[in-house]
Amino acid sequence: MNEDKQSIVPKWLTELQQRSWEPEILLSGIVLYGMFKVPDLLDDFLVFFKLNIFGNSSDINNLVALFKMGIYWLITGLILHLICRGIWIGMVGLSYTFPKGINSDKVDYKGKFKERVESTPSYERIVMKLEKISSSLFSLSFMLFMSLVGGYLFFLTLVILPFTISYIYFDLGFDGPFFEVFQIYVIAIVIIGLLGLLDFVSLGYLRRFKWFSKLFWPIHRIISILTLSRFYRPIYYGIVTNFNKWIFFLFLAAFAFISIMGAGTIANTIYPGDNISRLQIWNSRPGYSAYPGNYSDQNSEQPSWRAQIPSDVITGNVLKLFVAAHVSYEERMLKHTPLDSLKKLYPDTTTAALEAMVVQNYFKIGIDDQVIEVPRWYFHYKLESNQRGFLTYIDISNLQEGIHHLKVTTQLDSAFSRTISNIPFYRDQTLVPITNPTIQEEKENNPDFQPKPFGIRD
């Protein structure tokens, strides 16, 4: 049988198999270069999605977190692959340079030390073993990534999409008989998913029981289709049937545990290192922290998707405030100030002006718990952070020098009012324009007058 199989293998495939290390190294380098850039792109996508498309669900956080976790596994695997290939290339070179291998007679070791040298495998054997490990690492890296993506697609197809469609298009929310039935359905899907995970980690242990395998077969087919397992099933079976099963089982168990815990950690992390930091006297609660994303001169990496001001130190008499537009605001905004009602009151007013009124009636601005009347809001696209939103200018000429808190809330009743952002800033009055007396008048009264630099006061 093996001879028949060997006879039908094309010559070009045999040659390619023997030189597979070349495309492996090339692909590892190219993919690694791209993978290091993907997490930042995923963060940008997450902000864009929550601002512009659907902001009421944390499912998109879980999706991005799982993709990131898969990418980190892929990066780890490819780095290990390149390290193994590097050692492999070194051993290939040594096997050519020293064709006789290790000459134990040249070292005058005694006892166990000499036995260690004599028991060292030949270069050719090491090369063959490294070849097997390197190729397996390369394939395993992509299998881990695809299995994570496939696991999310399973729940996306059977849970997230049905609920999202029923919520948006059929107005079926988080209460009533529909939600009770849906909860039972979700529990059933979770149990099926856990069975699939157990089968994956246990190397198909559930398939060994004849009576259970018949019941599990249709479930397995559904799971296989929804998780795209056909793309990584050959890799999975190849490793299961050629490596130590216990080692691979422990590896998959660790992979599943680390991936679930890691994705949850990534989804809930605000600052890098939050989950490993041992600092106890530190807090990120609004009102006690100065989040860098709230300041335009500090937020190039993590711009706030709520509100931003130019800087944490304001030197002029005008405070520019940008509030990011958010799809989750719009339903409440239109309920509070319906466009249809405004059109009846102002029939000759443009749609843009009416929409500006909706914004005006929705946001409430306060500084140090004192409500500030904002004369007008403008629609604004912030180029630095690629965000759509609303821009206004606040007169702070009467504000004393020192620390102040800008608070952006909603003008709804107390039961539904919520704080959008709480931004601390320092009002600095060191720089003020010189307006009186004029430089010309000073020169006329005092010929020796030398004007001071603009903005410096006595």
Relevant terms:
458 residues, alpha+beta, Immunoglobulin-like, 2 domains, five-stranded mixed sheet, four-stranded antiparallel sheet, 15 helices, 9 strands, 54% helix, disordered C terminus
Characterize this entry briefly:
By secondary structure, this protein is of the alpha+beta class. 54% of the residues lie in helices and 11% in strands. The protein has 15 helices and 9 strands.
Rounded to an integer in angstroms, the radius of gyration calculated over CA atoms is: 33 Å
Structural class: alpha+beta
Write down the secondary-structure element order: HHHHHHHHHHHEEEHHHEEEEEEH
How do the strands line up in the largest sheet? 2-9-8-4-5
As a percent range, the share of strand residues is 5-15%
Helix content: 40-55%
- Determine the mean pLDDT: 79
> Could you describe the largest sheet, including whether it forms a barrel?
5 strands, mixed
Domain module count: 2
Report the principal-axis shape. Answer: extended
Poorly predicted runs of 5 or more residues: 452-458
Alpha plus pi helix count: 15
DSSP E strands, number: 9
Oligomer: single chain
Terminal-residue CA separation: 99 Å
Helix and strand topology:
Elements: H1 2-7, H2 11-18, H3 21-35, H4 38-52, H5 59-97, H6 111-118, H7 123-169, H8 177-201, H9 210-226, H10 233-242, H11 245-267, E1 307-308, E2 313-314, E3 318-324, H12 327-336, H13 339-345, H14 351-362, E4 363-367, E5 370-372, E6 378-382, E7 387-395, E8 402-410, E9 419-427, H15 439-445
Parallel strand pairs: 2-9
Antiparallel strand pairs: 1-3, 3-7, 4-5, 4-8, 6-7, 8-9
